Amino acid sequence: MSTEVSGLIECRPGARLWGPDDEDSVWHSAIDLFLLNNGNAYAGLACLFGIRNYFGFRPLAEGRGLPGDASEDLRTEYASYGGPPDVHGTTWITWAEVAAADWKETDSSGSRSRASVAGDETNWGPVWSVMRILGELHGADHVRLVVWFH
Predict the structure, then answer these.
(1) Could you give the CA distance from residue 121 to residue 94 in angstroms, rounded to a whole number?
(2) Angle at CA 57, nearest 5°, toward 125 and 48?
(3) Fewer CB within 10 Å, N side or C side of the chain?
(4) Terminal CA-to-CA distance of the chain, rounded, Å?
(5) CA distance linking residue 76 with residue 46, whole number of Å
(6) Residue 9 and residue 28: Cα distance in Å, rounded?
(7) What pLDDT digit, counting tens, does each position of 91-113 carry?
(8) CA-CA distance, 108 to 81, in Å (whole number)?
(9) Residue 93: how many CB atoms within 10 A of its CB?
(10) How far apart are CA 83 and CA 16, in angstroms?
(11) Quick one: average pLDDT of 114-130?
């Protein structure tokens, strides 16, 4: 049985304008992952999120759950997949974390780098491009990708 990834990129534009603690600094959905990434290569899922990690990557963002401050759009989309009974591995990662990752780091065999399985030249490239642009506009800590698996 295959594992599919779904999710959304969110941003918090008010945080840069008014500060992260302002009541108007809430998360907004930006774009559905489905529109940017048409693949579910397991090596990429392993190195990013620890899903099907037969490769021995040190995941960047494993098992963090659904953010408590997720946007209403994200909560609605997540619920449409059945929520916790029907999905697993829910997690999130900020653009700041993606940008700071060691993309030369390899799996346990030393044969696959993060860049080769989930870098700019893979199906993840469009996701990173959108997050990069939103990070330039709103700040790297105020852009995140929230994903779940089914």
Answers:
(1) 20
(2) 35
(3) N
(4) 10
(5) 26
(6) 9
(7) 999 999 999 999 999 999 999 99
(8) 33
(9) 21
(10) 31
(11) 96
Q: What's the CA gap between 12 and 87, in Å, rounded?
A: 25
Runs of H (alpha helix) within the chain: 13-18, 42-49, 72-80, 95-100, 114-118, 125-138
Structure tokens at 83: 């929520």
User: Is residue 25 exposed (0-12), middle (13-18) or buried (19+ Cβ within 10 Å)?
Assistant: middle
CA dist., res. 97 & res. 69, Å (int): 18
> Residues near 31 by Cβ (< 8 Å), separated by ≥ 6?
8, 9, 130
Q: Which residue has the tokens 């009974």?
A: 85
